[in-house]
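thought: fold this chain, then report.
action: predict
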Amino acid sequence: MSPEKFKKLKKLRKKLDKIDNSLLKIIKKRSDIVRKVLQLKSFKKEIVDKKRINIILKNIRKKSIASNIDPKVTNKIWINMIKAYIDFEKRNFKKK
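observation:
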């Protein structure tokens, strides 16, 4: 890689790092809301709502296409995020 390309790469990676930091702040906000949602659930079986998951994924697909983002990328991101938060809820579910 030429020094010029390396310099450009470094600059782009710095931009990615900034975006990652912004994403972490958003994930923190989302986690706080998920914690509040979990407090409203009385039974562990209420954690997974397949109907809502399907609606979310359909909406993300539409928005991705409209925004010219590869819907396969956003679908994978959202599926993994949903799975991660389902796991989070299951681990943090407290019987009342």
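thought: worth noting. The CA atoms of residues 65 and 71 lie 6 Å apart.
final: tokens above.
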